[in-house]
């Protein structure tokens, strides 16, 4: 496993990490989570991502039960939560958002669900236009001072919002965010490669990127239809199905068929090619992966070995297929 600094912080995160979105509670119980998280940890993964809104808090409970059974040394792994959307199905106004009240109370609730004394990373899960950014920065700084959080960050914030958060931290002598969690894959590149381009140096921005396989499209498993066990058949994820059936979705599948030829020539799977492509970007601190079996975890981890196969000529072939390089 390769370990990278999270931005300009001293925290080392595994280049490939593991996330609970969709799978935990919806597809996996605690026993299966133990098996899968164990396979990831044994492969060198040290970062496990979660959020209050995933399965309305159940994903954190499943991960918490798994962590208790696995009984790893607490200083050997990182666990995160994200705050913004709440953990109840019909939230009251104070049970969502990035107000000081919800940020602090949601942190306490996440600690209980995950069964840990502190969060290594606590992220603002989308901006909140109704709350001054300085209020959120102050709340996050206080949580770090309390010892409940070690590092904080954001998820899907614009470059301007990140700059405002850093400016507020500087003005009020608070603790600035160290990382941004945004979607990044072969089909979605603008934010990581263009919008944040100046922030890696100016702010020391780290990135914990998610959906590297574009919700499974970049595995090639949808090239000939939708398997019965696909997440696209899960209640609540109909939007994924509609996206796949759209003209853009079908165009992406056509590109995956072309990319599979490249993967086959390299002797790797399509999923490994897509993951290796993300890892190859030096501005990516960690790529959050997902899986429903231990074998999938092990296959994903082998993508690290594939990074060295992506020579300049291979990257040029991939660009020729994608035809979407931000400029």
Structure characterization notes:
This protein has 327 residues and is an alpha/beta fold. The protein has a single domain (3-322), classed as NADP-dependent oxidoreductase domain (TIM Barrel, Alpha-Beta Barrel). 43% of the residues lie in helices and 13% in strands. The protein has 13 helices and 10 strands. The protein has helices spanning 30-42, 58-70, 100-114, 133-146, 159-172, 190-195, 199-202, 238-245, 247-266, 270-279, 294-301, 303-306, 312-322; strands at 3-5, 12-14, 16-19, 47-49, 78-83, 119-125, 149-155, 179-181, 206-209, 286-289. An 8-stranded parallel beta barrel has the order 3-4-5-6-7-8-9-10, surrounded by 4 helices. It has a two-stranded antiparallel ribbon with strand order 1-2. α2 crosses α3 and α3 (100-114) crosses α4 (133-146). The two termini are 32 Å apart. The mean pLDDT is 94.
List keywords for this structure.
two-stranded antiparallel sheet; 13% strand; 327 residues; TIM Barrel; 8-stranded parallel beta barrel; alpha/beta; 10 strands
Short description:
The chain is an alpha/beta fold and 327 residues long. It is built from 13 helices and ten strands. Strand 7 (149-155), helix 5 (159-172) and strand 8 (179-181) form a beta-alpha-beta unit.
Biggest sheet layout: 8 strands, parallel, barrel
| Percentage of β-strand residues | 5-15%
Large-scale geometry: globular
What is the H/E string? EEEHEHEHEHEHEHHEHHHEHHH
How many domain units? 1
Q: Round the Cα radius of gyration to an integer and report it.
A: 19 Å
- CATH architectural label: Alpha-Beta Barrel
Average pLDDT level: 94
What's the total number of strands?
Answer: 10
| Cα end-to-end separation | 32 Å
Reading side by side through the largest sheet, how are the strands ordered?
3-4-5-6-7-8-9-10
Would you give the CATH topology? TIM Barrel
Q: Stretches where pLDDT falls below 50 for ≥5 residues?
A: none
Superfamily at the CATH H level? NADP-dependent oxidoreductase domain
Structural classification: alpha/beta
Tell me the helix content: 40-55%
* SS element count, helices: 13
What is the CATH domain class? Answer: Alpha Beta
């Amino acid at each position: 496993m390769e370990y990278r600094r999270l931005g300009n912080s001293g925290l080392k995160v595994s280049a490939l990490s593991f996330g609970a979105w969709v799978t935990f509670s919806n597809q996996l119980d605690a026993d299966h989570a133990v098996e899968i998280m164990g396979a990831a940890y044994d492969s060198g993964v040290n970062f496990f991502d979660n959020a209050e809104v995933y399965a309305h808090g159940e994903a954190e409970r499943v991960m918490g039960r798994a962590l208790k059974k696995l009984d790893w040394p607490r200083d050997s792994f990182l666990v995160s939560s994200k705050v913004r959307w709440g953990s109840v199905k019909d939230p009251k106004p104070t049970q969502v958002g990035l107000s000081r009240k919800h940020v602090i109370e949601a942190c306490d609730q996440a600690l209980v669900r995950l069964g840990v004394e502190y969060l290594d990373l606590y992220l603002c899960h989308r901006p909140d236009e109704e709350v001054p950014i300085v209020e959120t920065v102050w709340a996050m700084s206080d949580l770090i001072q309390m010892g409940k959080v070690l590092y904080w960050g954001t998820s899907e914030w614009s470059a301007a919002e990140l700059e405002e958060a850093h400016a507020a931290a500087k003005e009020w002598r608070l603790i600035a965010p160290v990382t941004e969690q945004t979607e990044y894959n072969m089909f979605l590149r603008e934010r990581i490669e263009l919008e944040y381009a100046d922030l890696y140096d100016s702010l020391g921005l780290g990135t914990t990127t998610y959906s590297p396989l574009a919700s499974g499209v970049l595995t090639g498993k949808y090239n000939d239809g939708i398997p019965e066990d696909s997440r696209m058949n899960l209640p609540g994820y109909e939007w994924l199905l509609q996206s796949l059936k759209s003209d853009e979705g079908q165009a992406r599948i056509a590109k995956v068929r072309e990319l599979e030829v490249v993967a086959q020539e390299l002797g790797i799977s399509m999923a490994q090619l897509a993951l290796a492509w993300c890892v190859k970007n030096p501005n990516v601190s960690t790529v959050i992966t997902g899986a429903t079996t231990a074998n999938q975890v092990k296959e994903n981890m082998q993508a690290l070995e594939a990074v060295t196969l992506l020579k300049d000529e291979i990257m040029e072939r991939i660009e020729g297929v994608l035809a979407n390089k931000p400029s």
